[in-house]
Amino acid sequence: MHAAPEPAHDAPRPIGPDSVTAPEPAARPESSWIRRAAEAEDSFHSWRERRGRKRGLVPVVLPYSGYGGEGWARVLCRVLLIRAGRDLRNPGKAVRGWRSFTSIPVAEARVTVTAGGVEHELRADRGGVVDADIAVDLPPGRHTITIRPDGGEAVEAQVTIIDPDARIGLLSDIDDTVMVTALPRPFIAAWNTFVLNEHARQPVPGMSVLYERLVREHPNGPIVYLSTGAWNVAPTLDRFLDRHLYPGGTLLLTDWGPTRERLFRSGQDHKKASLERLAREFPDMRWVLVGDDGQHDPELYRAFAEAHPQNVAAVAIRQLSPSEAVLAGGRTRDAEGATVAGAPWVKAPDGAGLAAELVRVGVLSGPARD
Questions:
Q1: Single pTM value for the model
Q2: Which residue ranges make up each domain of the chain?
Q3: Which positions fall inside the Phosphatidate phosphatase APP1 catalytic domain (predicted)?
């Protein structure tokens, strides 16, 4: 059921005798100044790391929920430096709020992952993020693994092994889909990084009920929250989703700053690459894709459905209010009730309305509202 994913840009690498490191793509001559910007960022983080270690800061792992299939698991975490006196076994509490942005990432950090009684050595990327597959035989369900950074303490992380018989998965956008943002799109990333805590935003009405209903009717499938937000805010987003009773799942976020090919990372490229990876990892899975009509989600989902019609069960688009649409920079004009590549395409302003539409097209059963 799993096809080995292609390495993502700046992807972390397993290390050891059996590892294979893909070469980085060659830089174009016209991108030399962008490459220098990335190198300058690397030098700045390296200086901060050296200075932090001299001050006695120690490496900690911020664990994120992962997923997997038969014979493999995707491990997600971030390695940071924090003060030694803090709770190293619960580092998420130590880097809340603005500290999530000012914390020092450990570039190329080595971590030891213990899963199924077997140890795996992995390495982080330039931003301290570990995102790598490991070979492990675990039965379907939720499992606890441990992740230990070099020179630090082990922490527990969760991975959900997807049942090979599951056929329906849930993939959801976050901003203006599960969370009411009410901000101009260019300011969302800054708000999420510098201001957002789990109490500062409100959930979109009815969406958590819709998601729980989807999970009840289609159990054991993957649940993925896909966002252009930075990994800095993952703990806050996790707490927001938990506080507002959204079903637990995997966050797939990205990073800010220059790469060796472009000055700023493309959020839409991140989403497209994530969808393509999920299609490779779960070739028999059909996804309910949920987003909003603020410019990008419909275009992204339509392209994915046309490229992978066998992997889309339905597209559910939350209709923004007029004021939300203005802040989002406009909305798309897809016809309500249409299909794309044979999959139902439904729209409504909230979770209850989307539930009714998904009942109408047969993705959900029973009454339109709980």
A1: 0.82
A2: 13-161, 168-360
A3: 168-319
